[in-house]
Amino acid sequence: MNYSVNTDVLIRYFSGLSSPEEALYIDEWRREDPDHESYFQELAASWMAEQNYTAPDVEQLWKAFEHKTAAASVPLKQRPKRLKWLPYAALLVVALGIGIWQYNQSVADQPLVFTYSTDLNEFELKEGLLVSLKPGAVLQREINGEDTLFSLSGNALFNFKQEYPGFRLQLSSGICLRDIGTEFFVESTKEAAKISVYKGVVEVWSLRDTIVVNKHEVLSYTASGFSKSALLGDFDYKDYSLQQVCEHIGAYFHTELRTGDPALAGRTLTLRGKDLSFKQVLDIITETLDIKYNSGANDTIIFSSN
């Protein structure tokens, strides 16, 4: 059956050498048809099971070939038989020549890699893209032709003020993510990753899964796979004014909270709790002060009197 997939891209995908665009191409192809996914899983199982393959030692094979074709070691009456090797020798020389040329080409086409490691609180990676690297974090940008891939080791906050078409980020754990106009925080190690989305949407994918993470959601990744939960926080505000609570809660969830009625700003309340979601916090505020809230422009939360 013809599954209409580029086998070269599929091989690079299994090898972990595909570009983000190629990885998305394979993921989209898998989702097009259940037969595609079944075929993919069959190939993936075969690929993972093939553990005994060993790359040939080209230098050793060449020496063995020279030994077999050495004139000094072949009796005269056997030399006509040796001549049968000549077409193969010519073919091998041509193959080696092509291999050397391809190697030289690959060296000439090596991607440009830029490394960012800074103590600055925030810097502009590109117009409209602000990045804050946490202590010990390293961000790399690899440019290979028209493709650009970012890779991150450690923790960093990404804040997109405008769209960045083609942005792809690969984490130490091997998963990749694509920004869809957002602000998110990444915690990354070789064994695991955690992505907290404050604004917009992030798409994350691994070899087997593709997950969409929305505002105020957290995606965790380990060897066992993905798990998604709400963005939670611990709060202990005693006798704070509503204005103060708005400032603190807004800073934590990266969302603007304000009072539509100036008379509400000075009203006090106590807000305490662990593992509270944004929705739970809003409910506590409205029930405690007997007020209501509405969503304004740019997801701004506005409190007003009942």
Percent of residues in helices: 25-40%
Average pLDDT taken over every residue: 77
Spatial separation of the terminal alpha carbons: 65 Å
Q: Kindly report the CATH topology of the largest domain.
A: Jelly Rolls
Sequence stretches where pLDDT stays below 50 over 5 or more residues: 51-56, 71-83
Rg from Cα: 29 Å
Count of distinct strands: 16
Number of helices: 8
Supply the CATH class of the largest domain.
Mainly Beta
* H-E string: HHHHHHEEEEEEEEEEEEHEEHEE
Largest sheet: 11 strands, mixed
Second rung of CATH, namely the architecture of the largest domain: Sandwich
Specify the structural class. Answer: alpha+beta
What do these coordinates show?
The chain has helices at about 5-15, 20-30, 35-50, 60-70, 80, 85-110, 240-255, 280-290; strands at about 110-115, 125, 130-135, 140-145, 145-160, 170, 175-190, 195-205, 210-215, 215-220, 225-230, 230-240, 255-260, 270-275, 290-295, 300-305. By secondary structure, it is of the alpha+beta class. The strands form three sheets. Strands 1, 2, 3, 4, 5, 6, 7, 8, 9, 10 and 11 form an eleven-stranded mixed β-sheet that branches. Strand 15 and strand 16 (about 300-305) form a beta hairpin. Mean pLDDT is about 75; it is low at about 50-55 and about 70-85. The termini are far apart. Helix 2 crosses helix 3. Helix content is about 35%, strand content about 35%. The protein folds into four domains: about 5-50, no CATH class; about 60-110, no CATH class; about 110-230, Jelly Rolls, CATH 2.60.120; about 230-305, Phage tail protein beta-alpha-beta fold, CATH 3.55.50.
